[in-house]
Automatic annotation (TrEMBL):
It holds the Pfam family DUF1523. The chain crosses the membrane at residues 7-25, 148-168. This is DUF1523 family protein. InterPro entries: Phage_phiNM3_A0EWY4. It comes from Ketogulonicigenium vulgare (strain WSH-001). Keywords: Membrane, Transmembrane, Transmembrane helix.
């Protein structure tokens, strides 16, 4: 039973960490800009998936949010929001939402004369939750087959795995050197007490 609880905890923790990383780490899409728009949004129970309100605006208050309408090379549409992250989480320190909106408006194109753009973003698109990935940076690329290597993700995940491995190795060594001998001594004392109590009852 304890093994089942242990593995359930490990799997739940892995899913939680994986979900947090998948949401917050940057990803890239090659798209064609269809158009831009500005919507009045009042974040409610899904507010955790939106950036903080701009300075001077109250949290939860109706505010303008930029959106970028795009099309993937396969023709499917994809919508991004364009909000500043400021000094909040995730730590992209983005303060250029207005500049990006002007940039993508200038990069808009038609299917007959496409201009392909790389969009660096984080977050998820979910229709039920009404949430959109947030565009962090956009730039023009030569074509729809342009490959972008996620160097940041590679370095970040490599360093994170190395740190977790180093900490786990030290914990295991500490357990074998200090904790396990202490537990063994405790077991020996408990066994000795039990043997003493058993002999006392037999003497009775």
């Amino acid at each position: 039973m304890l093994k089942i609880v242990k593995w359930v905890f490990i799997v739940a923790l892995a899913l939680l960490v994986g979900g947090v990383l998948h949401y917050n780490l940057p990803r890239h899409d090659i798209v064609r800009i269809i158009g831009t728009e500005n919507r009045r949004v009042t974040p409610g129970w899904n507010s955790m998936f939106y950036s903080n309100a701009e300075p001077g605006s109250a949290a939860g208050q109706v505010r303008d949010v930029f959106f970028i309408n795009t099309a993937l090379p396969n023709g499917r549409e994809r919508v991004f929001r364009n909000e500043d992250t400021g000094w909040g989480w995730p730590p992209y320190f983005k303060f250029s939402a207005y500049d990006i909106q002007a940039q993508v408006a200038n990069l808009a194109s038609t299917a007959e004369a496409p201009r392909w753009v790389a969009v660096r973003h984080y977050g998820w698109r979910n229709q039920f939750l009404t949430i959109f990935p947030n565009a962090v940076k956009v730039w023009e690329v030569p074509g729809p087959d342009t490959r972008i290597i996620p160097w940041f993700n590679i370095i970040f995940l490599t360093v994170s795995v190395a740190l977790v491995w180093a900490i786990a190795a030290r914990v295991i060594r500490w357990r074998h050197r200090r904790l396990q001998p202490a537990l063994d001594r405790l077991d020996q004392r408990i066994d000795a007490r039990r043997a003493g109590i058993s002999r006392w009852f037999k003497g009775k």
